[in-house]
TrEMBL record:
Domain of life: Bacteria
PANTHER family cross-referenced by the UniProt entry: ANAEROBIC GLYCEROL-3-PHOSPHATE DEHYDROGENASE SUBUNIT A (PTHR11985:SF35), GLYCEROL-3-PHOSPHATE DEHYDROGENASE (PTHR11985)
Keywords, in A-Z order: FAD, Flavoprotein, Glycerol metabolism, Oxidoreductase
Boundaries of every Alpha-glycerophosphate oxidase C-terminal domain copy: 407-477
Name used for this protein in its record: Glycerol-3-phosphate dehydrogenase/oxidase
Entries under PROSITE patterns matching the protein: FAD_G3PDH_2 (PS00978), PROKAR_LIPOPROTEIN (PS51257)
Organism whose genome encodes this protein: Ilyomonas limi
Residue intervals of the FAD dependent oxidoreductase domain: 17-340
GO biological process, one term: glycerol-3-phosphate catabolic process
Family membership noted in the UniProt record: Belongs to the FAD-dependent glycerol-3-phosphate dehydrogenase family.
Molecular function per GO: glycerol-3-phosphate dehydrogenase (quinone) activity
Cofactor: FAD
Organism phylogeny: Bacteria, Pseudomonadati, Bacteroidota, Chitinophagia, Chitinophagales
Amino acid sequence: MLRDQMLTQLQQTPQWDIVIIGGGATGLGCAVDAASRGFKTLLVEQHDFAKGTSSRSTKLVHGGVRYLAQGNIKLVKEALRERAYLLRNAPHVTSTMAFVVPVYSWWDKWFYGIGLKMYQLLAGKLSLGKTKWLNKRKTLQELPGINDEKLKGGILYYDGQFDDARLAIDLAKTAIQQGATAINYCKAQSFIKQDNRITAVVIKDEINNNAYTVKAKTFINATGVFADAVMQMDEPHKDNLIAPSQGIHVVVDRNFFSGNNALMIPKTDDGRVLFAVPWHNKVILGTTDTPVKHISIEPKPLEEEIGFILHHANRYLTKTITRKEIRSVFVGLRPLIKKGGNATTSLLSRDHTILVSKSRLITVSGGKWTTYRKMAEDVIDKAIQIAQLPQKTCITRQLSIQASRIEAATNSKDFLHAGFHYTAQDIQYFVTEEMAIKVEDVLARRTRILFLNATIASTVAPIVAQQMANLLQRDEQWVQDEITTFTQLANQYRLADA
Ligand SMILES: Cc1cc2nc3c(=O)[nH]c(=O)nc-3n(C[C@H](O)[C@H](O)[C@H](O)COP(=O)(O)OP(=O)(O)OC[C@H]3O[C@@H](n4cnc5c(N)ncnc54)[C@H](O)[C@@H]3O)c2cc1C
């Protein structure tokens, strides 16, 4: 089992160059970068890789049209560059997608048309295709199922799409291939200091309950919305840096929105952007931007957020979506950085921030999935400087990301479910080669069944639990506990009246 190998490496290494805390997009990107520069790298994740925000995004590899409207050209240009690198380096989990903005006034047609043309031009040679003005007939062809009342036409532009959690797992494998050790279900609990400098971190293996003291030359806090908790392990009285903002997504069947293109609504009632994006044969609708006080690893959707998304989707689609038709609701927290005085989270910085504490803990937060590679490059450059590591150049712009070896099964008898063509062999691969430890790891992140249809995920959970128990040598009690825990989780993704 790969995880056992990782634990052995953890115990046999007397000192690491770099220890990374957090196995989301940011931490995994740092691990790939550090290992590929030749540094002795350890990454620890308290739950499963991408259990946090990094499995709960809108799945867009994008420059951020919204940031263009806010005038943040630098951020958009950087993200457009990163979009191109990601599409090139991970073609197995990314794709180009056409987005259409329906317009209902001539002013909007020009306003959004010019903005989205600029978006194309800002990408320069890395553009994914030309932005086009569409007449009403063509808009209805490109967006079947859209409301045509007062429709004047549309704008079509191109952006990227991806499978976030799959990319995260593949980044973990790439980091390992490059020589890193990366372990899930290992939580950083406290720091050990000498002469006011952090010299070690105590981590706990949540599966075996073992604790390890891990020495390193430098430590990176890449824990997203949990960054304050880790910074306060270093400086207990430190003020909070993060202003978390919640975003929910609703998943429905394709018959509500059957075309291959995505719908982009540039301005909802409260001035946000809303998407309807085809994904794995379903449609993702979202997202919201709700400031929250409480940080949870499994945040819950608010009733008003669900109402907000259905209200706007139903305004644009001809077939009405009701709560009963929702297949899954998933919720993520944005790790936005506080900036004094801003009233709403939609105006807070989406840029990333790197901070170094007196005891030399490097904290990275903010940013977005699309720019994870650039964030990692900046962080590892900083780590080299702080820990006086040998200067080695970043190579991740050109580095291919490892694809998983899931075979396309052909015999429907072998499928886990008629709608999801995974087999027993795939589950074995997830457990032995991808460190899946719990039923949720298979159904939420190695496959995306929980995010696509929470009811089906509950139905197949007992089969997955039994097979995992055989592979991991767990008893019947483990199987029952896993089924109970997973069913409770799936109930949160499924609305009570759905
Ligand atoms: C609703 C929503 C939609 C989004 N859509 C997009 C999009 O379409 N495109 C895009 O580019 N970006 C998008 N983003 C942004 C993007 O998802 C995030 O910027 C990114 O996932 C953040 O990754 P992260 O690694 O910083 O945080 P996380 O993914 O939260 O990872 C942090 C990890 O640290 C772990 N951790 C915490 N404490 C400890 C500890 N003590 N020890 C060990 N591990 C610990 C956590 O368990 C967690 O897994 C979206 C964000 C949201 C919320």
